[in-house]
Each structure stands twice: as structure tokens, then as C-alpha cells.
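Q: For a teaching handout, I want to show students what a protein-ligand complex looks like in C-alpha cell form. Below are the inputs, and the small molecule is pyridoxal-5'-phosphate. Please produce the holo structure.
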Amino acid sequence: MNSFRLTPLLRRQLIHNTTSYKTPARRLFHSTSPIMSEKLKPAARVSGRRQDVWSIINEAAAASPRQPIVNMGQGFFGYNPPDFILAAAKSALDRVECNQYSPTKGRPRLLKALADAYSPLWGRQLDPNSEITVTTGANEGMLSAFMAFIEPGDEVIVFEPFFDQYISNIEMPGGKIVYVPMHPPAEGAIKTLSAGEWSIDFDELARAVTPKTKMLVLNTPHNPVGKVFSRQELEKIAAICVKHQIIILSDEVYDRLFYTPFTRIATLRKEVERITLTVGSAGKNFYATGWRVGWLIGPPHLIQYVSAAHTRICYSSVSPLQEACAIAFEQASAHNFWQVCIHDMTQKMTRFNAIWDELGIPYSQPEGGYFVMANFHKVQLPQDYPFPPHVAERPRDFKLAWFLIQELGVAAIPPSEFYTDANAHIVEDYLRFAVCKPDEVLEDAKERLRGLKKYLKE
Ligand SMILES: Cc1ncc(COP(=O)(O)O)c(C=O)c1O
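A: Here is the structure, written as C-alpha cells, with pyridoxal-5'-phosphate included.
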């Protein structure tokens, strides 16, 4: 029988079954009670983690007396892609072939559009068929890269603060993470300085390399710091990786948002390009983080294995939105879109960061991306403030974030979540704000943040 009809009998059974979900048996199934069978236990990779920052912040936002919260926390856009991109997505849905599976490596039209967009930046013609692969967002692309190259016990160097998804994505294939912290400028608590002043200790980086080091993850422009790694810094990282033949996974999802010269590590020289996978994201490029379209660019001897892993993880990525992204790339220059992106985000940065200047709170002036890190060293939290236990036990930035949500109704992200416990103190005075929000929201946030005045110590 091909069709499914809801007969009166079936309907009664369905209602009965649905209602019985609420019986104790169903509750037991979902609980962690000891009665739960061993076999139903989740794998270690998804269980036993402490509450993550996103649920702590969302929970705080829901519990806050200041409703609605001004959400400057998570990095999603508060506005739509431009009309020419939305129109491309809508028209793709009307086409039969756009509603079916795409080739696993990506739709030919998008691969060509990516090759056309990136070849001038690479200074040579990229081959759309062997040097680019389309993925389900940058995130799944990076998971595919780790799945493709990491064997259990292989080491991966990750700079702190890190984008949190790297960690589980590396651990899933059994990789071991070796952390190297980025250090804020020494005077970050008293002066507004460029985000470029956050630095890596290159001796520390060299010491992190062992015979087991297989990959290094770089992120530029950087989330959450807003740093764009300079050519000199990239040269030093590249020299280490070339010497030890370490694959560089360069997460460049904010590659169209830079306010200072931006160098792509793959373009330094041939030896570096040979070992580099560059990651991109249509979500970040086109204000559409929910579209889940990303890509990796790299030499065929690396890309083919990323494609192979991607095929096994999700087969192919969402078709109509790949088509829309192809059209977005094709038409971007005609709409002056890349310049508009930089112009608009710079204006938002200037508009929002004026509040820190007004309050005398120092911040890291972003060189790229859409996050700003403000230093709350001067903010004195009330002595006996009632933090819930899961916040009280975390570093000061979690308490700052909780306090801001409860008292002022502004959500921001505590960046110590993106450091290991041992290094969390490095950023415990900082909070990360996402400025990719409509101007009214930025103004609303500023007005609320003026409430900090009474908590500032000199
Ligand atoms: C540094 C960094 N890399 C990757 C991603 C994920 O990109 P996508 O949404 O395309 O998976 C993000 C998203 O916030 C990010 O900040």
C-alpha cells in the first residue's frame, strides 16, 4: 500500500499512543534514572558535557525580568540578505532540478561561481572540479576535513579562543587537541587598542608541534577577537607548518568583512597552498546563516578526501540555496555587494562601539568580522549578587554576562567558553558582542548599556 489514510481506528490508536507518551514509561525512557538500560545510554561524545554557553545564555534571557532581551550574543544577522539574493533563492525553488539532490561536490554553477570569485584572489585560475568542494555550511565542511585526515591519536593545534565547534569536530574522529592561547594586549583593560594586538607566542606554537601533529586550525578574520592575522604572522605559522608538513585548515568564513589588509594564508606561496584547506561560508558572506552552504578550497590531493568524507556525512548540500549562492556570487560585483558589506558593517561597528567610548570601557577595535570584545575590568559586580550555582562556579565573564542580562536586558557571550579551563582567566574580564543587528537594535542596546554607569569603578 503506497498511500497512508487515517482511518477512524488508526486515529483512535494514534491518539491513544500519543497520550500514553505521557505515562511513566515514557518519562523513564527520557530520564537518566538508573532504570534506563545501559544500551540506551548516549555516547561519551554527546553526554557528560557541562552546560554550554548557548543554553546558559538562552536560559538567562528567558528568566530575565527585562523582556524582550536585546540579543547581542549569538552571531546571526538581524536582517535579510539583499533582494537580488532572496529573489535568486525564491526562483530556484520553482525549478524542478533545484529541488533534487545536487552532485555531492556541489552544483556545477556554484563551483564555477566560486572559482570565478576566488581565482583573482589566488592569482591563478582555480579548477572548480578538483580544487573546490561545497559543504553544508563551513561547519560541516570542517567536520569533513577532520574526518578525512584525522586518525585516532593524531594531534591538531587550535588557538584559543576557538570557535567551539572545532573541538567536538576534532574529537569525533579521535583527534587530540593541542591548545595554544592567544594573548590580549597587556593594556587591554585600560586602553582601546586594535584587535590586531592580540598575539600568539610563536615559541609556544613551535613547542606545541610534535611528530603526531597532523593539522593546525587558523581563523582569520577571527571570532571572537576580531583580529586579522598579519602577513608576517601568517608567514611564521606557515613556516612551521611547511617544515613539519602540517595541514592548515584556514577558517576564513568572515573573509568579506575586513577593515585592514587581509591576507589569505593559502596565497602566500606554493608550498603553503599545497598544505592548506581554506574554508568559506555563504551564511556569513550573504547574511544567511540558516542556509547552511559553505565550501572548502584546496589542492586536489586534499580536497578529494574532504569530498569523500562529505559524501558519507550528508551526501550533498541543500540544492536550491546552492543555486541561490551561485547567483549571489555571479551578481555580487554588479551590485557592489562586497564593498557594501564592509561599508555597512564598519558603520555598525562605529555606531555600537560609541557606547564604550562614552562609558570609558576599553574594547578591541575589530579588524574584521562582526564581533567586538569589550573589557569589563572596570565593572564592579555587586558583592552579594545571587548568581545561580552553574554561573557562580564559572569565570567572571559568565557572571558579567548573567548580570547584564538580568539587570540591563542585554545578552552577550562570555569568551572564556572558548578557552580551556587552564587559560580561561585570560579573558575573564571580556564580553563578546555581535553587531550584525539592525541599527535600532544597536541603539536599544546602547541605551540599556548606559545602565552600567553606576557599576563603574575608577
Ligand atoms: C569562526 C567560525 N567558523 C565557522 C562558523 C560556522 O559557519 P557556518 O554557519 O557556515 O557553518 C562560524 C559561525 O559562527 C564561525 O564563527
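A: Two things your students might notice: Residues 75, 137-139, 163, 219, 223, 251, 253, 281, 283, 289, 294 surround pyridoxal-5'-phosphate (CB under 6 Å). Residues 16 and 248 are 56 Å apart (CA to CA).
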